[in-house]
Amino acid sequence: MSLSQTLALAEDFLHELNGISVLLRIGLSMICGGVLGIERGKTNQPAGMRTYMLVCMGAAVVMMTGQYTYTHFESGDPARLGAQVISGIGFLGAGSIVSVKAKVKGLTTAAGLWVAACIGLGIGIGFYTGAIAATAAVYLTITKFKAVENLFTAYDTWFRVYIKFDSMEAIPGFSRALEAQGLQLGEIQLNKKQSKDFTSAVVMIKNPGRKSQDEIIDFLTEQEGVHSLAMLP
To answer: DSSP states of 3-21 as a string?
Structure first.
């Protein structure tokens, strides 16, 4: 028997539902889910390595169950259960999306959970090459493409600054100074608990003039009526 025939037989064997293929699929789904979850865990996201592993493995088990039902009972659609996973995982993803100080966080984690489930479905049906390739692509996206995204959007996104003004009357002049400098002023959220000495606010600023962050901080600090400020994440 030639090497090509041996490989073809091994491939057919692993695509069938048997003890070895089941163990391989469960193990591979845990590995792929864990790889994606490790990066999310490092950034202190609500869903970490174990969550991703469980989602990916659960999806693989669901898909294997569909294949088992179709093979042994000769009825039903092997992809029917998997279709429910794709829609149902949205509930788990929604739980990882939170709003913190008017900023939505967790969207990447939610998308990662959804794609981890899809990878698990691919592993569960025996689509090993596609699942492994997708895992590598997703890991590259969430670890390396953030810098690429920032390269294109760093000057087109809003950033937040916490500012203490000497008084409320300083805000109109501050606004005019920003516009004269080419900066765009957005929403101003005044602190409800104001002190007698200062008026504090969270100010949204856009930087279409492509100035560096240090230049912006120096400019804001020099404005009349600004007592102190701090950049917010």
So the answer is: HHHHHHHHHHHHHS-SHHH
